[in-house]
Write a structure and sequence with these properties.
It contains seven helices and 13 strands. It is an alpha+beta fold and 299 residues long. The chain binds zinc ion.
């Protein structure tokens, strides 16, 4: 976007308080500084200084105002369905998404803590022209049903937070991966319900991925402060029998280049988490070979 005349806004999407940590944000800010990115709106110093409107967890007031606006028109209701309730009533086996049946629409539950909050979606097609994929049509009512905007733990959902922010912050071009294409219609719908007259433009780019088991990987590893161990690598990862993966690739840095290979195991350690035991060998020609074993827990 830089160089095209557009202004770039930095937003930290930490709407999910269970999964967000201040240290993750600090790491991202440091990385952006190191890479030399200078957002036009909400530079990294603005985040470090404390409360910042670029940070979703600081925008509770803004989201509440948006809810009040929708609620005043009778568009918001509370829902105490569990995921299991929703699955049992989701009558659309052809749908890859969980479809909410609208069970709580007219139950009159109050908008309290401990229940989900939803926005009514009437049937109707949203049409938009993706800048890469062309004309698209989505009916959010058929895709997901009434959209969840706040979960029972009090977290604003991704769909709601970005719809409010994109509108209020004047975002007019959204560039993102094609995995978010199905979310676009509902975000356009939410924004319109909030009063946005002209939706943002969208450009969904392909993800570099083959199947769930086979993916092209690319990464740039660096340290901060820089210590010349930075390296760029690209390769291919092949997973089989669910828990095993093999990896091959090419590495380069300032001084050398070489091939890399590795193998590892993923194994579940709890319902939500997994551990990765990973071995990698990198041959960096002049710099010699190196072995690395890592054990990583992902939750
Ligand atoms: Zn419900």
């Amino acid at each position: 976007m830089w160089g095209s005349g557009a202004r770039v806004l930095l937003r930290v999407e930490d709407h999910d308080r269970e999964r967000s940590r201040p240290e993750y944000e600090a790491g991202i800010l440091d990385d952006l500084d190191w890479l030399g990115y200078r957002p036009d709106v909400f530079p990294t110093e603005a985040f470090r200084a404390g409360r910042c409107d670029g940070r979703q967890s600081d925008r509770d007031v803004v989201y509440r105002e948006a809810v009040n606006e929708l609620a005043s028109r009778g568009l918001v209701y509370a829902c105490d369905c569990t995921r299991r309730d929703i699955e049992q009533r989701s009558q659309r086996p052809d749908n890859d998404e969980l479809w909410y049946s609208g069970r709580c629409r007219d139950r009159g539950l109050s908008l309290d803590e401990g229940v989900g909050w939803r926005v009514r979606f009437e049937p109707g097609v949203e049409r938009f022209c993706d800048e890469l994929l062309g004309q698209q049509e989505q009916d959010p009512f058929l895709q997901c049903g009434d959209v969840l905007i706040r979960d029972r733990l009090g977290n604003w959902t991704y769909q709601f937070a970005v719809s409010v922010d994109d509108y209020r912050q004047g975002i007019d071009l959204v560039v993102r991966g094609v995995d978010l294409l199905p979310s676009t219609g509902r975000q356009i719908r939410l924004a319109r319900l909030l009063g946005r007259e002209r939706p943002a433009a969208f450009r969904h780019h392909p993800l570099i991925m083959k199947t769930a088991d086979q993916k092209l990987i690319g990464s740039f590893e660096f340290s901060h402060p820089p210590d010349n161990s930075e390296r760029l690598n690209a390769g291919f990862e092949y997973g089989f029998k669910k828990y095993v993966f093999l990896r091959g690739g090419y590495n380069m840095n300032y001084d050398s280049e070489g091939i890399a290979g590795g193998a590892g195991f993923h194994f579940p350690v709890s319902v939500a988490g997994q551990a990765d035991l990973d071995y990698a060998y990198t041959d960096m020609k002049d710099l010699g070979g190196s072995h690395r074993v890592s054990l990583k827990f992902v939750f």
